[in-house]
UniProtKB/TrEMBL annotation:
GO terms for molecular function: carboxypeptidase activity; metal ion binding; metallodipeptidase activity. GO terms for cellular component: extracellular region; lysosome. It holds the Pfam family Peptidase_M28. The keyword Transmembrane helix does not apply. It is found in: Endoplasmic reticulum; Golgi apparatus; Lysosome; Secreted. This is Carboxypeptidase Q.
Length: 381
């Protein structure tokens, strides 16, 4: 940000709770021995020394798990086998997300000693898909892990041949206190500096890969937009604030901290780039008046990039969602995500997946949309 010439570059520190992965090992014992690929879910406690050996109960869905009576899975490892559908807008992941967040809590209520789920990804490689659980699992969880999709299908076949027994060993460290930070920079408005247009991305990622897609791509789009807006011959009328949030993956910790600290700031509109590299195909707004002239002005600059008008139910993105819930207007530049969950939160989220042409189109769309807010007279959406 300093190299780009942004103003007021700073870090804003916030407290968080630290969960750190350890060793993870899973082995089918019967009906046929086979090592399977697993990864512990965020906040999972460790298994007892020596690991857990138990029978595995296959369950079709979170709903089926919740419908089971108390003690239905006493002493067993529960595995929810539901697959995440491939969709271009992330709605498939939205539908299966609760399995990861609440599955361990529901399995524990029914006597289970550990919880497994089919990885919440659309990939077919033997990588498991990491992710966070509900915060209640910090104190009330049981050992919990994701299984790679081909291994879940293997377990479903093996289960037809006889009772399925396996061992599971997870050794994450106990949760401890720590801190992280949001990184902020601005281009100060020339006429109305107190009016802020905020664009964010997040700089944390899951540990299995390098976070190139989630959310290095979004960070690149935001900083690419900063570079182009800074290079324009005249400064924007309003202030644009670029925020690289910390600790999104553990439950929007940086986003909540920012929203609390900056609730008195005059945020005109907020948005985030956190759905891979694009291209951008749709504009969603959350305006009091979806037919506001600003929405029409946005479509005039976005349509030539292939962008179509979407809904007026924008959420802005995960890190800005606390501000949107508090009533701040938002836009989403919806990005093509058919392949996003092939990579997201897995060891395959690495820089070689980045495609310059997709990033370039996304940067163009963000600059066009942001400049509309920064330069235009009729605002207050
Ligand atoms: Zn993300």
């Amino acid at each position: 940000m300093r190299a780009l010439g942004l103003a007021n570059v700073r870090q804003e520190r916030f407290p968080l709770q630290v969960w750190e992965r350890g060793r993870e090992d899973a082995m089918v014992l019967s009906p046929a021995p086979q090592r399977i690929a697993v990864t512990a879910l965020g906040w999972s406690p460790a298994t007892p020394v020596g690991g857990i050996e138990a029978e595995v109960a296959l369950v079709d869905s979170l709903e089926a798990l919740k419908a089971a009576p108390a003690n239905a899975y006493k002493g067993k490892i529960v595995l929810v086998t539901q697959a995440t559908p491939r969709t271009h807008d992330g709605s498939g992941y939205g539908a299966t997300g609760p399995i990861r967040r609440f599955g361990a809590l529901e399995a524990k209520k029914r006597g289970a000693v550990a919880f497994l789920l089919r990885s919440l990804g659309t990939h077919h490689h033997r990588f498991a898909h990491a992710g966070s659980q509900d915060r209640a699992t910090i104190t009330q969880g049981i050992p919990a892990a994701a299984v790679s999709p081909p291994d879940v299908e293997l377990l479903q076949r093996l289960a037809k041949r006889g009772p399925l027994r396996m061992t599971l060993t997870l050794t994450p460290k106990p949760v401890r206190d720590g801190f992280s930070q949001n990184v902020i920079g601005e281009i100060t408005g020339s006429e109305k500096p107190e009016e802020i247009v905020l664009v964010g991305a997040h700089i944390d990622s899951w540990d299995l890969g390098t976070g190139a897609i989630d959310d290095g791509a979004g960070t690149a789009i935001v900083l690419g937009a900063a570079k182009l807006i800074k290079a324009l011959p005249s400064p924007p009328k309003r202030t644009i604030r670029f925020v690289l949030f910390g600790a999104e993956e553990q439950g929007i910790t940086g986003g909540r901290s920012y929203a609390e600290k900056h609730k008195a700031d005059n945020h005109l509109v907020v948005t985030e780039a956190d759905f891979g590299q694009g291209p951008v195909y749709g504009l969603n707004t959350r305006f009091a008046d979806p037919e506001h002239p600003t929405a029409q002005a946005l479509m005039r600059v976005l349509a030539p990039l292939g962008v179509v008008r979407g809904s007026n139910a924008a959420d802005g993105g995960p890190d800005v969602s606390p501000m949107v819930e508090a009533g701040v207007p938002a836009i989403d530049l919806a990005m093509e995500g058919t392949d996003y969950f092939d990579l997201h939160h897995t060891a395959d989220d690495t820089f070689d997946k980045i495609e310059r042409g997709r990033i370039n189109q996304s940067v163009a769309a963000y600059v066009a949309a942001l400049w509309t807010f920064l330069s235009w007279a009729a605002i207050s959406v």
